[in-house]
Amino acid sequence: MTLQELKNQFPAAPEYLTQIFLIERDNGIVPNARLADRLEVSRPAVSQAVGRLKKLGLVDQDRYGAIGLSPKGRNIAEKVVRRHFLLEHLLVNVLQFPWDKSDAEAGLLQDSLSDELTEHLAERLGNPQTCPHGNPFPGSDIEKNYLEAPSLADAEESVKVKIIRITEEGEMTDGMLSFCQDNGISPGKTLTVKAQNLDETVCTGESGTITIPAVFADFIRWESE
What we know:
Blueprint: H1 3-9, H2 13-27, H3 32-39, H4 43-55, E1 59-61, E2 67-69, H5 71-94, H6 102-109, H7 115-124, H8 143-147, E3 160-166, H9 168-171, H10 176-182, E4 190-196, E5 200-205, E6 208-213, H11 214-217, E7 220-224
Antiparallel strand pairs: 1-2, 3-4, 3-7, 4-5, 5-6
């Protein structure tokens, strides 16, 4: 089944498969409630959609209700994620579109890419290993290390860190990408952690002192500078 054939049968299927993939990749399990929150739909709507995806052989569920992708479903999800990340690169690095708006815009464009254009785009962009926000391409050499990188909320005081990733959940958190854009927080930037508490992480960087709300700091990943 091609992606277009799937969309003709169930238009929302690619988005469901993609979010199942991304949640599973970061969290290991995909409960119905978490998927509903990510997609901003009701739990009954998720249950109905998962039922349709199961009939198509794209997902399965264990005895506790956790949702998983079948090999066929995973293949489709990885294809959509790859298209999305490449479009973000095109928008940010070629068209100079704002970094903090590229995720939403790529979501509107990704269904228009053919497989041929996707491969051409990857080649012209130099086969990047992450999206502009640092999330690794499925199957990339750095995928495991980037997914296991620690959260800024857990960094010790006085540590100098290099930002490598804003998680997918962070990208979808209201106001986070704009906050990062305004405060110079992006992959490759360095910060020094000055203070940590339950409500915020205080750092210094190129733009001076930055007070990062805990809900944002939790989605920022780093490696030692």
